[in-house]
Amino acid sequence: MTPEEFRAHGKQVVDWIADYLAGIEAHPVRSQSAPGDVRAALPAHPPERGEPFEAVLADLDRVVLPGITHWQHPSFFAYFPANASGPAILGDLLSSGLGVQGMVWATSPACTELETVVVDWLAELLGLPAHFTFAEGSAGGGVIQDSASSAALVALLAALDRAGGGVPAAAGLSGRHTVYVSSQTHSAVEKAARITGIGAENVRIVDVDPHTLAMLPADLDAKIAADIAAGATPVLVCATVGTTGTTAVDPVADIGAVCRDRGLWLHVDAAYAGVAAVCPEMRWINDGVAEFADSYATNPHKWLLTNFDCTVLWVADRAPMVDALSILPEFLRNTATESGEVIDYRDWQISLGRRFRALKLWSAIRWYGAEGLRAHIRSGIALAAGFAGHVRADERFLLHEPHPFGLVCFRPLWTGLDVDAENAATLAMLERLNDSGALYLSHTKVSGRVLLRLAVGVPTTRREHLDAAWDRIREEYEGPA
Ligand SMILES: *Cc1c(COP(=O)(O)O)cnc(C)c1O
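Above: query sequence and pyridoxal-5'-phosphate SMILES. Below: predicted holo C-alpha cells.
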C-alpha cells in the first residue's frame, strides 16, 4: 500500500469509525450471533491474490459487526466499562503509524520518555505519592502494562525477588511461599501465583466483612502468623480498591500496617476504581497507599477514556522488579543501557517487545484536561447514584450498599422461592434483558445470592439511558409480555 493509497483508505476507515460511533444506538448492545456464525461467514482459506481494501470494509459490515458486542453503546452496563474516546483512538492510530517497538530506550527514546512523563502526570492527577514517580530522588516509577493481570504478575515477581534476598523467582522457589487475597480479589492474583510456581494451594483467602465485603486485617494477620508457624514464607498481600464483584474497598492502611510488621509486599489493585481519584472528593480511596503500598495498579482502559490496553503500574522501589525481570542478551547491548542513564522498560514487564501505548493516554489527557477527566468520572458516579435511587425506592428490589463508584448491584426479590430458585429466576430475568438487545447487564454472587450488576461509565451514557434501563428491568420483573 503506497502512502497515497493509505491516505485514501485511511480516510475511509476514519469515516467508518465516526459513522459507527454516531449510529451505535441502532445496534443491539449484546451481539446476537450464535456460536460459529462469524466463522461460517468467512472463507476457510486465505486469498491467493491481494484484494482491494473496500472488500475488507464490506466484510466489516457484513460479517464482523453482527458479531460485535457494542462496548461503546450508551446502554452497555455489563462488567466494567472499556472506555474508548476520539483522542485515544487517534493516539493509538499514531502508535500504529509509527510502528515502533519500544523494548529498550535506544529502540525509540520518545517511546520510553513520553511514557515516563505520562505516568508521572497520571500519578499527579490521581494524587499518588511522589515516590511512585520519576521525580528526583525517587526510587520508584510507573510503567504502562497491557492489563491489571500482568501488573499483578509483575508485582508478585518483584515481591518474590525481595523476599528471596534478590534471587529471581525464575531461579526456582526454595520452600513454600504464600500469598493473601480475599474472596473478592480478582482471579488474576491466583493466576499469577500459579504462573510463578507458588501454586493456587498457597493462596490464602482472608475473611471479609459480611456487609462491606472488605478484607479483615485481623484475619489477615492471623493467617500470616499461622503460615509462618507452619514454615512458609509469606510474600504478598493484594488489597483491592473497588473489587470486581461489587466495588468493595479494602482497608489499605490497616492491611498495610500488617504487611509492614510482617515484611510482606503490599500490592494495591485499583484496576477499575483507582482513576476516580482524579476527583478530589474521591481521594479517600488512596488512604494508606502513600504510607504502605509497594505497588499500585489502575486501568485508564476501564474508566478513564483510554482505549484498551492501558494499565498503569507504579512501584515505590523499582530495584526488586528490575532485578526479577531484567535480561540482557547480546543483541540488546547498547551504550545507553550501559550508561545507566536510561530506563529500559523491557525490565518492567513480562514480554520483551512493547507498543507505544503512552500516545493514547497522552492524547486523552491532553484533549480532556484534568477538568474533563473529572467531569467524566463525576457523571458516571452521579448517574449510578440516580439509578440506585430508583432501586432503593422500589420495595420489590434490594439495593447492595455502599456503591461509591459507577457500579450499582441489586437484586429482584421473589416471593415464595428458596435461594436456588430465586437465583435461577434472577438469572433468567438477566438473560431476557440481555437477549432483548436494549441493554447489557452482568451479575455476581454475594453470600450465595445472585446480584445484578449495572456499571455506568460509557462516555455517551445519559440519564435517559438509565431511566430506560430501569423501565425495562421493571417490565421484565413483572413478567415476560
Ligand atoms: C478488571 C479487573 C482486573 C483485571 O483487569 P485486566 O486489565 O483485564 O487484567 C483486575 N482487578 C480488578 C479489581 C478488576 O476490576
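The two ends are 54 Å apart (CA to CA).
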